[in-house]
């Protein structure tokens, strides 16, 4: 590991009072510090135990702790013990040296002896010897914390071998031969380019046959994430979903598919030739997608859905072979997975959970039993279904874009690795990006106990704090007959026999008690009706902010603020939201969120309220919008525009139209692969919405948000006055009326404000 020293740097924390040059002990400590620094180890000194505690909780770069026992002169040494206990709760591996002399050795309690790795008796040993022991401990620590693949990649990149293989930039050298290339080189840095390698580098193993350090990394990830097998993926969870489906189901076999599915599931159906039978989730008044209800997942309901599927012809076996369910939903609704397994396991042998936005769940007890790889893989009953999970490691964990993992638990009717890998290789690149693989490796290391729970605890704590701040502010505003935003969450929490207002609940309870977030039957706030108690839970880190305008009865109120306008306002202030619907905006409290970050959001929401109430001119609060659409928005203020958009939403009833449209399961006349084959043969034509009545969609129609298919390829658009085309016409009309707020609908081309879609001839 000495090769890594200069790359990573070595940092030790010395917790000690200022050494006294007049004492033997002080002179020995000064010399030790000097010799440690001579070994290229930086020493950060803290003269306070409380300060040291803060450093250790915030600075993961500390690779060794040197603690002077005499820092705490109390009889019980409580502060020293507290420091070490806190450290070990966060990091079980970082080496700790206790600095003392023989005279006080007998007073060191057992718990301290257990938390410390070594002892430094000053001045009995030479400082040169002691500094060597410190450096050796640091190097062992770094070797232990670096995951297999990343550690091997780092070692190779530091060997400075000449590159005769692809990629052609040869470790970055090619970029240095032009001005633009040099700028690229300087921006991304030497290490990234040296680690951009070819599969020809055999000592790193192969992603395609899962060998060497890459294979070791995948096995390490499987242990961390609770799987029997894990596969690194460098083309996102879109590839992960396609790999699983194409390994599990083929042409004219039935796959049960959550209608709340990512478009990669549609693509997988198309590529595999599978016959999708859709499981339709619920929706509430805000358009938030809820869970698929338990009664929909029962064996009887599944049989009925297959029997009513017009694509299931007489020659097709009606037994489903695969089921894919989205967990959690975009808005943070998570299933009790054990219940889903119990229900769907009666119908299929293979369950597939798309957990692209949910890779952190295993690492916090708040989510117990609400993720695919729950419990221990050793306890997985082989008579139960084989379970797959796809996780976008880059979304809410710490990895580079496109990083994803496939996790597998073998149950009944498993897919042997060799067969599964044929599908994997069909979609994987033969030139995978090593930095993406390494980021998967590092993400696993970051989530390994105990750090995974610490990191997720911090995310939950920040989300809870933000939610309570917003709830408190709204309560205060309402008491003054004023308005403010709210969060989509339970307004009260039951504590014993008492219902306590959300912002007054102990944050510790909100962080640790899942019952605070469970959707109970017939509660108005969630709007999913008589849902099975405990079946579904709201993930606290996915925060939907509600803007005023939607009543509890699903009707629009007299006053409202369209969320699209709030989203545009925040964007002008440099705050980009994850998702916007009519009255909701979504924020994700990932492990990268801090109080400073969400504090800025709170201030921005207050700024919006101030500028709305004063009807601030658009040229001051939304100058880009006004400049691009001078004729449409000239002379308007923020309140004017909000009232204009809200009036249009009331007239067109876009929110209600969305709920009706997505609550309707279109009639399928061709399978996705049959529709695609006609598309390739150009047996299609482009029509307006007025011409689309009764026609069959050639491509998926997917409005964003929420990014859920309205029409799948091969499905009938329905009558002209039906809910599907009515919703698209409402979007079309809105887009013409409010330039700058146009909707993004995949499968729709808009020209001069007119929507067109491809249909089969």
List the helices and strands and how they pair.
Elements (H helix, E strand, L loop, with lengths): L4 H4 L1 E6 L8 H15 L2 E6 L2 H10 L5 E5 L9 H13 L5 E5 L1 H4 L4 H6 L2 E4 L5 H19 L2 H10 L21 H10 L1 H5 L17 H14 L3 E5 L2 H13 L5 E5 L4 H10 L2 E5 L14 H4 L1 H9 L12 E7 L6 E3 L1 H8 L5 E5 L31 E6 L1 H4 L7 E6 L7 H11 L6 H14 L3 H29 L6 E2 L4 E4 L2 E4 L5 H6 L23 E3 L3 E5 L16 H10 L6 E2 L3 E5 L6 H19 L4 H4 L1 H6 L1 H4 L4 H15 L1 H9 L9 H9 L3 E5 L13 E3 L18 H15 L6 E3 L1 E4 L2 E7 L1
Parallel strand pairs: 1-2, 1-3, 3-4, 4-5, 7-8, 7-9, 9-11, 11-12
Antiparallel strand pairs: 6-13, 10-17, 12-13, 14-18, 15-16, 18-20, 19-20, 21-25, 22-23, 24-25
Helix pairs in contact: 2-7, 3-4, 8-11, 8-19, 11-19, 12-13, 12-18, 13-29, 20-23, 28-30
How would you sum up this structure, described in words?
The protein is an alpha/beta fold and 761 residues long. It has five domains: 2-145, Response regulator (Rossmann fold, 3-Layer(aba) Sandwich), CATH 3.40.50; 151-194, no CATH class; 235-428, 3-Layer(aba) Sandwich (Aspartate Aminotransferase, domain 2), CATH 3.40.640; 453-651, Aspartate Aminotransferase, domain 1; 654-760, Ornithine Decarboxylase, Chain A, domain 4. 41% of the residues lie in helices and 15% in strands. The protein has 30 helices and 25 strands. The strands form seven sheets. The protein has a seven-stranded mixed sheet, with helices on both faces. Strands 2-1-3-4-5 form a five-stranded parallel sheet. The protein has a four-stranded antiparallel sheet with strand order 14-18-20-19. Strand 15 (492-495) and strand 16 (498-501) form a beta hairpin. Helix 12 (236-248) packs parallel to helix 13 (263-272). The chain is globular, with a radius of gyration of 29 Å.
